[in-house]
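Now for one record.
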Amino acid sequence: MTSDDEKPTSSNSDTVHNAQGDARNQEKSDGIALPSHVAGSGSLDRLVDTARDYARAAASDNTLTAYAKDWAHFTRWCRMKGTEPLPPSPEMIGLYLADLASGSAPSPALSVSTIDRRVSGLAWNYTQRGFTLDRKNRHIATVLAGIKRRHARPPLQKEAILAEDILAMVATLPYDLRGLRDRAILLLGYAGGLRRSEIVSLDVHKYDTPGSGGWIEVFDKGTLLTLNAKTGWREVEIGRGSSDQTCPVHALEQWLHFSKIDFGPVFVRTSRDGKRALEARLNDKHVARLIKRTVLDTSIRSELPEKERLALFSGHSLRAGLASSAEVDERYVQKQLGHTSAEMTRRYQRRRDRFRVNLTKAAGL
């Protein structure tokens, strides 16, 4: 039975497939092998495979796919310019960065953050091939510094989904199986300040699946999430809400009960008719689509055209919403979001009293 989740278009699917293929080819030449003077054996060969598995786990699938795309783009650029990508040439990489920043038809100029990410992608790919890319080389560092000085802009932040917004969004969802699932996703993501990848990577129990990013434990007073996130393992406490209609824990319990899920991924696809839970774990893109769809179904920022409304909100809107709405000490918000610094937490706060502490008056003026 076909699931409710959208299938990627053929062009997008081909791009991802090619990037993943490049990543898989890279894995075969990742440098993890027996020394030439050591004879192979069944035991040693298995250890090589195990070491490669650990090496692949050093970065997320999304990061590996992005790095594969970066390398594919750079090697294609090299071919068009009549040069080779190996060994690394700081002079050519400097020219490549200049081309990315200036834009060459039909490709538009890239943002500074994207260019910075491309450099990281190239450095990673060169390392996997046994080379070292010196990012401090003057041909790279000075060009990159000039690009940042000329083109850098303040980061564009997604709009926060505030308490009244999330209530309006969940009110648009039906009470069928699919609606129960999506309600639990929105409320849990908002109350936990979760990334969309963290939401869909949850399992019911510890170590239920190899791809697990954490698990849940339900108690009388709330739910404890144990997450393997970007900054390492952390626990997220989600207490029960003031009513069943807005309680993330109740929404989670309802979804698990009616979907009959007691093992494996917490959030899975449903059949086309919305009456059965399937085994396949949801993709994190479902969370972004769900947010945009429910925003459109409400009056949130309805004064704007639809295209602009959609551009304002993303998965990060849930995390920004918690940071902006929770009227508690900033330390608790920082812990919930898993930030290592209070400054990072403040970047997520779209609505706060910026002048609550007046250092001017405190200094005697």
About this structure: The chain has 16 helices and six strands. Residues 81 and 214 are 46 Å apart (CA to CA).
